[in-house]
Amino acid sequence: MSTYHERLSVPVRWWFIAALAVFTLWLITAVPAGNVTGLIVAGIAAVLLTVLFLRYGGAVVAVDAQQLRAGRATIDRVYLGKVEPLTGEAVRHAFGRDCDPAAYLVLRSYLRGAVRVEITDTNDPAPYWLIGTRDPERLAAALTENSVARS
Known about the structure:
The protein is α+β, with helices and mostly antiparallel strands.
């Protein structure tokens, strides 16, 4: 049973912008080269953008009683230390100037919040995980021992 689950899907406005880009490609190709060529170019662009958005936005952050999953990585909760929800400037600094190059990052440019999770496993090269999220307080609560799921 999962105590927290979030798919980091791309925002709707990205799909709208992609649709406008595909339409623009069709238009600038169809006028000089014909409608069939325009449809082929627009179709290829639509497929590529759809695959890109689904893969980029397909990252999952999930917490259950035993593990934390962020993107492609999972870690047992016994190896989790201090959990810190980040918002505003703290997120910018955490993903920028204050970021440890050895940290495991799951970031998406459209997310305004994050959670920093200290890793206590001495065999793990990452000192902490920095996970982008839409709801940093809720994710942090799911990871802490004081959360409803662990009481």
